[in-house]
Structures are given as structure tokens and as C-alpha cells.
Amino acid sequence: MSEHRIDVGKVLDDAPLTAYHWRIVLFGALMMMLDGYDLSVMGIALPAVSEAWKVDPSLFKWSLSASLIGVGVGSVISGFMGDNLGRKRTLVLMYGMGSLACLGTVTATDVPQLVVWRFLVGVGMGGAIPNVISLISELMPAQRRPLMIVLVYSGAALGGALGSLLASVIIPAFGWTSVFYVGGLLPLLIAAMVWVAVPESPAFLIAKGRLNPHASATVLRLRPGFASADAQRLFVGDRPAHAKTGLAALFSEGRATSTVLIWTLFICTQAMVFFVQSWYVTLLTRGGHALDSVLRTFSLWDFGALIGGVALAWMASRVSLERLLALAYVVSAGCLFALGTVKELSMLTSIVTFLTGFSVVGASFCMGALAASYYPTAIRATGVGMGLGIGRVGSIVSPILAGSALAAGWTNAQIFTAAMVPAAIAGVAVLVLSVIGQRQRHGGVEIAH
């Protein structure tokens, strides 16, 4: 009877962190690390490809952008797939597609072919991201969930960094195709291991009314000491009968405002990330600073990014993620203003650059965890996938606008001040989202925090 049923979400929320949880996180981080490698490898290999083909590097611009566009497309498509076919099945399928497309890159003989392969890499690898986030969200204990999602997500940044080191060794020895062979074969191996070693989300399986023995077995491994008899009485508490699914569900049952605010956060955060990544070096060297000094200072952006994401997620177990993000946006706005006033590179510039990465990229690492917490099991992958896909608008538009401002003769101070606008909008949006979340929780509306 219904009063004897047990909510699988609450069972897993209260589970202690075990070695099995860590194994799942490790595989997720490995997938994201190779995901980050595959998405960044074109930029790493571009000089070698340009030299081998005798083609000017400027003609490869669409080869670099194609994967970003593909990520947006793949995120949206795979979000719907994940909520219908399963997180694990969609994850492995999309990841395998991206891996094969990376292998296909070595067959390219001209730039248009390269653009097609890189777009497909973006679709596959981008499509893996919302399902990794949804799967980790539904398997991890509630108190550690933001931290675990960020640990997995930050693997992408590590993959990009390690890719540069690997490329410096294997491209001189084996040519430009070697980095794409690595980017295709290793992910296929990891995908096969994930298929065997990582479980499907029990909440998804139970919500679909199938494979309950597998769901029960997974719950018993994730929640040691849980009675096997009770595992036969599990149900999904955040999936009411006749609940809408798909895109419409993101705007039903009082979620419309939250969804718009979450999309706003994705757009603004990605706009800041890609503005700094695209124009920091150019703007500071334009100010008369030596390129080598600017590059050394800019390296602190990456260190700040890695530390910021993990630190914010760790603090989220003690303070609400919305409040932490609001603080991060305030700090990022202050840092962007300070960068616009730089007259000489100093220790203060290094600290500001570190804090910019800490706040801006740290916030972007936490966006998946935030989105996952606002959607129930039935539409979680769709919600995360749509957020990631919509966020690509910011990543594509902001560098273009900054370039236009530069061409129009704007000063560094004016450009960096304009870049504060997304930070201000995001800060307001996350505070409003926090208020809405509190009202919904107090009103009894389910939010998956």
C-alpha cells in the first residue's frame, strides 16, 4: 500500500559516502576529463595541422567554433534522450559517438571536412555532459551532491590542461593525427568500462516502471544496511502520476520562472567565462604589457577556476548554493572592474586574475549542480541539458560583442566595465531564484535540493 512505500530519492539522499560512490565519481571524472580533452584538442593541434596542410591558421576559425556549436545541440538533444532512454544508456551512446567522431577527424583532408567532424565531436561530447550530471546527482548523498558533481565536472578542465602537455610530446613524434587517435580510442575504452561498472539511476528505472531488480540492487550497494525487503517497496516521490515530461514540463507546475532564471544564469555565466578566455590576453597586451608576462599572469585564471569550483561546491554543504553563487557574481564583477584599471602587471593583478577564475569559472562549474537540484527525476536531464544548450548563447555572443567593442575603439576600462553587466544580471537572477526556491519549499512544492 502507498503508506508502506519508500521514496528512493530520500533513501539515497541519506546514504553514507562509500567506496562505491567514489568509484562512480572516478569514472565520471575520467569521462569528463577525456570530454574536455576532445573538445579542446583542435586548438592544441591547429598549428601542426596548419603546417601540414599549408593552410593559414585564420582559415580554421569554424573548425574551432564547430565543436562549441555542437555542444549546444548535443546538450539539448541528449537531455530529452536521457529522460526517456536512461542516463547511462544515453551517456555511453553520446560519448561513443563523440569518440568515433574524434577518430574520424584523422580522415579529414580539408577544412570543411574538419568542421563536420568537429561539430559531431561537440554533439557527442556535449551530449554526455547533462547525463553525467543527472546520473551523479541521482546517485550521490544529498549533502555531498554539489561537491561530487563539481569534482566530476572539473575533470573537463584537467583534460584540457593535460592535453597540452601530451600534445607537446606526441605531435612532434607522431604527427597531428596522434592527438585525435588518443581522443578517440581512450574515451571508447572508458565508455566500455562505464557500461559495465556504473549503474543506471535507480530513480529513473523505478519511474519508468522497469528493471526494478537492478534498481533495488543498486540501492543496496549505495545504502549499506538498507533492508532488502524494503528495497522492493521503493518509489519515486518527485514523479506524480500524469506529470508532464519534455520541454513543456520545464514550464509547468510553477517551474516557468525558475527555468527562465536558470537559463539566464547559464547564459550570463558562460558569457563571462568566454569573454575572459577570449580577450584577457589581447586586452592586456594591448595595454602595453609583454606577452610572456601576461600569459604567466593569465595562468592563474586556470588555477583559480579549478580551486573555485571545488571550494564553492564544498561550501554548498553548509550554505545554500544560491547564496554562494550570488557572492561569486559580486566578486567577479569587482574583479572585472579591477582588470579594466590595470596600468602595470603586479601582485595585485595576479590576485585579481586568480579571483576572477575562482569566481567566474567556479560559478560555471556549479551551474549543473544548481540546475539538477531544481528539477525532479523525470525531467532532470532535460532541464540540465537545456540549460547547458541555452548557455552556449552567452559563450558564442560575448566574444563577438567584445571584439566589436574593440574594433569600435572602446578602451580596456570600457570593455571590462561592460563585461560586468552579465555578472550583475546573474547576481540578481540567482537571488530571485533563491527566494522562489524558499517559497516553493515552504509551500510544499518539490524541489530536489
Layout of strands and helices, then pairs:
Blueprint: E1 6-7, H1 8-13, H2 19-53, H3 61-85, H4 87-104, H5 111-139, H6 145-153, H7 155-174, H8 177-197, H9 202-208, H10 212-222, E2 234-235, H11 256-286, H12 291-315, H13 321-339, H14 347-374, H15 380-407, H16 412-418, H17 420-442
Parallel strand pairs: 1-2
Regarding CATH, which class of the largest domain?
Answer: Mainly Alpha
CATH-assigned fold name of the largest domain: Growth Hormone, Chain: A
Q: What is the rounded distance between the termini?
A: 27 Å
Structural class comes to mainly alpha
By CATH, the superfamily of the largest domain comes out as MFS general substrate transporter like domains
Second rung of CATH, namely the architecture of the largest domain: Up-down Bundle
Written description of the protein model:
By secondary structure, the protein is mostly helical. Helices cover 76% and strands 1% of the residues. The chain has 17 helices and 2 strands. It has a two-stranded parallel sheet. The longest helix is centred in the N-terminal third of the chain and has 35 residues, at 19-53. It is globular and about 70 Å long.
Summarize the structure.
It is built from 17 helices and two strands. By secondary structure, the protein is mainly α.
Task: Describe the structure using short key phrases.
449 residues, Growth Hormone, Chain: A, 2 strands, two-stranded parallel ribbon, mainly alpha
